[in-house]
Amino acid sequence: MDKRLNNRFNMYKVVRDWLTANREALGALPGLSESIDEFAAVLAAVAALDVTKGNGLSAASDNKNAARELLERRVMDTVRMLKAYAVFSENGISADELDMSASSLKRLAEMALLSRSQRVIQLAEAYQEAAAPYGLDAAAVDGLKQAHQQFDQKQTAVRSAIVNRKDAGEQLEARMDEADDLLKGKLDVLMEVVAINQPELYNQYRGARVIVDR
């Protein structure tokens, strides 16, 4: 969460901890104990959403980057085998279709890389038997196809993680608003009653309600 929300959340946690520690001293005021529990539950939900928002995309991106590196290697290995085969045979493979390098693959956008690797897969399947002496055996073709599929899946996972992160962020803000409503609409009201006979406890509560800019 951003600094503004984090400062608010830290204040909420201080209030929660103070209320929990002083629950007995505050007495059996109707609705107070239930409101404290409800407030704590909302804060637990906020914390869980913050973890989801922070970690999902990072892990998915790391997995996608590793899958892309593998696909680029497999594509280049296959292209090298096909080039060698093409040099020593009259096979009709266009030189333009094999005109790529490791650096050019790295510069391609993700969808362009998938398109390029799909075309290399088609060539590999078409010439696999003939190019087998140059290393293009069935296992090499399968490895390329698996790398292509894995990268496609990881790319989709990143897109999903971005959507999930946005959803988690929206839910987090909604939960923060819920916590604020509980604090102002219930807990503050009940603590005003506590202040009548226990002003010292009330002053401690008000001290916990201060947002500290960190």
Verbal overview:
By secondary structure, this protein is an all-alpha fold. It has one domain. Helices cover about 85% and strands about 0% of the residues. The chain starts with a helix and ends in a 6-residue tail after the last helix. The model has no long low-confidence stretch (mean pLDDT about 90).
SSE map:
Elements (H helix, E strand, L loop, with lengths): L2 H19 L1 H4 L5 H56 L14 H6 L2 H22 L6 H60 L1 H10 L6
Proportion of strand residues:
under 5%
Number of domains: 1
- Helix segment count? 7
Tally the beta strands: 0
How many angstroms does the end-to-end distance come to? 13 Å
- Low-pLDDT windows of residues: none
Helical content band: over 70%
What kind of sheet is the major sheet? Answer: none
Work out the radius of gyration.
Answer: 30 Å
Shape call: rod-shaped
**Structural class of the secondary elements?**
mainly alpha
Average pLDDT metric: 91
N-to-C series of helices and strands: HHHHHHH
Which features characterize this protein?
214 residues; mainly alpha; rod-shaped
Give a quick precis of the structure.
The chain is an all-alpha fold and 214 residues long. It has helices spanning 3-21, 23-26, 32-87, 102-107, 110-131, 138-197, 199-208.
